[in-house]
Target: Trafficking protein particle complex subunit
Amino acid sequence: MVVYNLYIFDRNCSCLFYRQWAKVKECGISPEEERKLLYGMVYSLKSLLSRLSPVSTRDGFIGYSTDKYKLHIYETPTGTKFILNTDHKAGDQQETLQHIYTKI
Model:
């Protein structure tokens, strides 16, 4: 499994932590703008999916996958979001993100 990066956001969209291990290509925008876009995308997808889902799920929106990468999300009861980007072949990383939250 390749881990590209890890973001930790508080509930007010402030990036508390960012670490990059592998970057496939430059995106041409500042790191600050990239963080804001990521948070906005996750917020919008979570909102859209909660409205479209026919049933309420306990965990809510936990990520998505493309043919290039997989985005994993773990949200704490206080609204802190742990966002991990990996290669698309990675399995579910909810336990990993929960471990980071509870043990580190």
